[in-house]
Each structure stands twice: as structure tokens, then as C-alpha cells.
Amino acid sequence: MKINSLFYEEFKEDILKCTLCPHQCILYPNKTGICRVRQNIKGEMYSLNYNDVTSIALDPMEKKPLFHFHPGEKILSLGTWGCNLKCPFCQNYEIAQLKPPYQKKIYPNAIPSLMENYDVQGVAYTYSEPIVWYEFVLDSSREVKYANPDNYNVLVTNGFINEKPLRLMLQYIDAMNIDLKVYSDKNYVKILKGGLEPVKRTIKIAYEEGIHTEVTTLVVPKVNDNLDELEEEFSWLANISKDIPLHLSRYFPAFEYNEPPTDINFLEKAYELAKKYLNFVYLGNILSSAHEDTYCPDCGTLLIQRKGYDIKIENLNENGECKNCGRKICIV
Ligand code: SF4
């Protein structure tokens, strides 16, 4: 189903400018933007993927990954097709960079009853890029909140969005995991076809607006496996808050990128470096569950033990404080 886009303006007669993300694509009649899901049809901009659901699953919250938001709960996860970045190592390229032949048609007003069927309180917009699914995510997240204000919405996103649409969407969003893919504007532009500053702005705004914010960096050989550059990222993040959880994930070959998987020793070094700046750092996509547990940054008490998706919450009181020293832990 096509639906009118919310963010565009006329550029010249019959030519439109999309203002949803920093690409600001100029669309001639019938053309689609870089994301392939917004099209100029007779002088109006349409979202082409409005109620196209390519993936639907009940996932552990930790799979998003969100380690400090409703730990151990399950969340209804929905994805569509399309993306506004072009990462050559895309781990979900079948839906992000290609259009799968079949999509389930689901309308936003059906989401609350789907949640009831799955017996969950939250929805994650994930797998492909929710920014280019904007109108659906906005409508669905509103329905989710109207059904019950205690329900929650989660975005798993690349963060490459303009400020105005971001702020409008955030009114219904409770938590975000934002990819900070490489701490170099040059490589964001050259390799990913995006830009660093808009992603940094999204992280900052999300945190300042009180959205529970976690950040993921997929460590990719020859893209961002550079400790000096990673240290700049850690330091920048710590300046916003040392308590923002950071997930350093191991890359595996996918889509158009064939470098071998990230060296575990390098990931360990990056982990140790990140810990100098940030209180909560986790390693993901590795077989061992070392570096997945949560410890109190003040007294070192084990707070949450994770073995894969087996979660044990220990030593945290009802107010989210360490039972041993009383330190407030950023866990929702
Ligand atoms: S959302 Fe799509 S069409 Fe709009 S500016 Fe971004 S890439 Fe271009």
C-alpha cells in the first residue's frame, strides 16, 4: 500500500525534495530515492512500504541488542524493506538492500491485538531501517501507546534522519539502539553512503529527550578496526554520558564484503579501551559469554548475568539500584 510521505517539499515544478533523511534526495517524476521506498508519483511523494512487513518474530530484548531495557523480556519485532545507507557488509541485506518477493500486509491498528496474541508489552521496529518506514512506525507506535500507555516502542536504527522527523517520532518511542558504524565522516560517506554528524546528533537528541539509548558499533576489518578512531568514539560517547551502554559486535562476512570475521583479540583490546571511558560495555556476536554481564561500576557487584538469552537479574533492587552499594544503575 502506498501512502503520502510526511516529509517532502516541492523543489521545482513536478520535482520533489525528500526531507526525511540527510540525503535530501531530489526526485524527478516516477523516480525513487536512495532508500528505494519513496517515490515521486505525479508530483506527490509516496512511501511505498507502508504496511509491508517482511519479518515478524518474538525476540529476546537482548537480541536487539538492548541490555538495560526490560532485561529478559520478549518483544514483538517487525521489519520492512529498504534502507537509506548502503553498507557493503549489511547483515540484513536480503530485506535492507533487496526487496523480498513476499511481504505480509499489516496495518498499524492491528498491532495492539498482535501484541496481545504474543503476550508482550512492547514492539521493536528493527531488521531493516525503521527511518525509511517512517509513516508506518509513527502510526503503529501511536496505536501501541493509545492501547496502553505502559506499552513501549523500540527503534533499532542507523540514526541517519533529519532533526524534525526525529523529534516528531520520539514522542512515542521509549528506547533506541542506534548504530554508530564508524567514527569518521569520510568513511561514513565513502563506504556507507551516509554521514557521521547526523548520527551523532540522533544519539545526542535521543539521550537528551530521555529516550533509553544504547549504541552499537559493528567492528569491521578495514572499515573501523582502528583503536585511535574507536577511542575518539568512546570519548565522545562518554561526554554525553558514561552510562550509555555500548555494544561492540563482531562482524561476519555478508552481502558484498568478504573480509574474514573480526579478530577476537582486537575486539578484546577495543573492549578494554572502551571500559576506560564507559561504564557498560558489551561484546556481541562472539561464542563466549564473557563480557556480556552487567557489573556495578562503583563496587563491581554482578548485577545481571547473561548466558546467551538466559538472563539472571541479581543484586538489583526494585528502584534499579545496586543492592550492595546503592548506586543507581541505568536500567529501565
Ligand atoms: S528517506 Fe529515502 S528518499 Fe528520503 S532523503 Fe532519505 S534516502 Fe532519499
From TrEMBL:
Binds 1 [4Fe-4S] cluster. The cluster is coordinated with 3 cysteines and an exchangeable S-adenosyl-L-methionine. [4Fe-4S] cluster binds at residues 83, 87, 90. SUPFAM superfamilies: Radical SAM enzymes. Pfam families: Radical_SAM. CDD domains: Radical_SAM. Keywords: 4Fe-4S, Iron, Iron-sulfur, Lyase, Metal-binding, Pyruvate, S-adenosyl-L-methionine. Its cofactor is [4Fe-4S] cluster. The keyword Iron applies. It comes from the Bacteria. GO terms for molecular function: 4 iron, 4 sulfur cluster binding; lyase activity; metal ion binding. Residues 68-285 form the Radical SAM core domain. PANTHER family: PYRUVATE FORMATE-LYASE 1-ACTIVATING ENZYME, PYRUVATE FORMATE-LYASE-ACTIVATING ENZYME. This is Pyruvate formate lyase activating enzyme. It comes from Petrotoga sibirica.
